Amino acid sequence: MYDVFMSRAEGFPDVKISEIIKNTSSGIDLAPSHLDLVGVDPYLYTIENRAAVLKEALGDVVDRYDYILIDTPPSMGQFVINGLYAADRIVITLDSGTFALNGILALTTIFADMKEDLGKEIRADMAIVTRWGESEPGCQVPHEEKNDIFSVLRNIFYKPSELTPEEKKADEDRRREHERRLAMLGEIQARFPSVHTVPFSPAVYESQKHGLPISHFAPDSSAGVAYRSITDEVMRWS
After folding, report:
1. From CA 200, how far away is CA 134, in angstroms rounded?
2. Do 70 and 112 belong to one domain?
3. Based on the domain organization, do 195 and 93 belong to the same domain?
4. Which of these three, 80, 101, 126, is where a domain ends?
5. pLDDT tens-digit profile of 79-122?
6. Exposure class string for 206-232: b at 16+ Cβ within 10 A, else e
7. Which residues of 67-88 are buried (b: 16+ CB within 10 A; e: fewer)?
8. Spacing of C-alpha 160 from chain mean position
9. Does the model's pTM come out above 0.90?
């Protein structure tokens, strides 16, 4: 992608995106990137119609594929603007941390600027909140009291041990974190037409280590099932 973007800069060879596409074992064609790509951003500011570089490059292959996924970097800059300008639909990914809502506000500003400067209306169609759930260390929801016969008998004959101050504090911290996440999710749901949560799962990191998407490495994991649901919805988009 470095070569594709730099084709617009003076003195660099003309490289079409079709020349760099690689087939992968997952069946998904890939237009690979490289660390050199970070050096492209300054050049883009010297190019006319710089927001449309990616859109014009994709014109070379757009008729080949049913879906083209554009993965933009997390930092704000010309690559994000190029991705937004080229896309027909927009999916925003967020983690479940404290600063997720700040990221939404920053994107909203970019959407407004693009409408003013480029005349394109930008709206996100879906938000995906990753690392969500009770299995993430330090973020478990307090255990619910069980009402099965064994739990009832145990509570009758065995007096539960008193929690230590440290355990009480940890329990309260977990409760507050759970409430924060629910409040955050409510705000996200109010801003986006479709919101999905993807549970925290070690299978995600294992799939990355093996260089395979979660759909191929661990499709039945909690994260794999969540991404299947997301995929089903995306494939219904016209």
Report:
1. 8
2. no
3. yes
4. 80
5. 989 999 999 999 999 887 767 777 788 888 888 888 888 888 88
6. ebeeeeebbeebbeebbbbebbeeeee
7. eeebebeeeeebbbbbbbbbbe
8. 42
9. no
| Cα distance between residue 230 and residue 238, in whole Å | 15
Cα angle, residue 41 at apex, residues 63 and 6 outer, rounded to 5°:
55
At 180-230, the pLDDT tens digits run 888 888 888 988 999 999 998 999 999 999 988 899 999 999 999 999 999
Q: Name 218's Cβ contacts closer than 8 Å, sequence gap at least 6.
A: 201, 203, 206, 207, 224
As a whole-number percent, the residues of the chain with pLDDT over 90 amount to 39
A 10 A CB-CB count for 2 gives 18
> What are the DSSP E strand ranges found in the chain?
91-95, 126-132, 195-199
H or E element, residue 205: helix 202-209
